Amino acid sequence: MDETVSEKEVGKLEVLVTQHSKHKGWDFPKGHLETAESSEQAAVREVEEEVGVKAEVLEKAGQTQYFYYDEGEKVLKTVNYFFMKYVGEGEATTAFEVSDKKWLPIEKVEDQLTFKATKEMWGNARKRIEQLALRLRSGQAINH
């Protein structure tokens, strides 16, 4: 559901990736919408629930779609990704869904990702992350 961009150390840009506890694939944190929840609200909630990170949405990063099977039925899933700014540590309440997490420099993210669709979305989003980081460092507002 999201990409979390971090500047925990001044001048250091990192991206959060997670390993799913069941299929062991590496991806960005993601989840599902709850009733009356926007995609942005779900992204913020899921990042805190899964990995204990409080974050703020900066803007939409991209979207992927894929099929999976739920109780024998083929389901199309659409995932919206967001650029997010690290705000602080939170409480991971569904940490069992994630077996590992890594903060990576942007040049190492693609090699860590497992899925083709996510790698393609990342390829399109990478330059924008660098632009957003420059704006954040210079104190410019991010309009979303």
List keywords for this structure.
144 residues; Nucleoside Triphosphate Pyrophosphohydrolase; alpha+beta; 29% helix; six-stranded mixed β-sheet
In short:
Residues 1-126 form the Nudix hydrolase domain. This protein is α+β, with helices and mostly antiparallel strands.
- What CATH calls the topology is Nucleoside Triphosphate Pyrophosphohydrolase
**Oligomer description:** single chain
Let me know the CATH homologous superfamily.
Answer: Nucleoside Triphosphate Pyrophosphohydrolase
The poorly predicted ranges are none
Q: How much is the radius of gyration in Å? A: 15 Å
How large is the share of residues in beta strands? 35-45%
Q: State the share of residues found in helices, binned by percent.
A: 25-40%
Total strands: 6
Mean pLDDT: 85
* Helix/strand order: EEEHEEEHH
Per DSSP, the total helix count is 3
Class computed from helices, strands and strand pairing: alpha+beta
- Please write the CATH class name: Alpha Beta
Largest sheet: 6 strands, mixed
First-to-last CA distance: 16 Å
CATH architecture term: Alpha-Beta Complex
Shape: globular
Write down the domain tally.
1
Organism: Candidatus Curtissbacteria bacterium RIFCSPHIGHO2_02_FULL_40_16b
Keywords: Hydrolase
Family: Belongs to the Nudix hydrolase family.
Domain Nudix hydrolase: 1-126
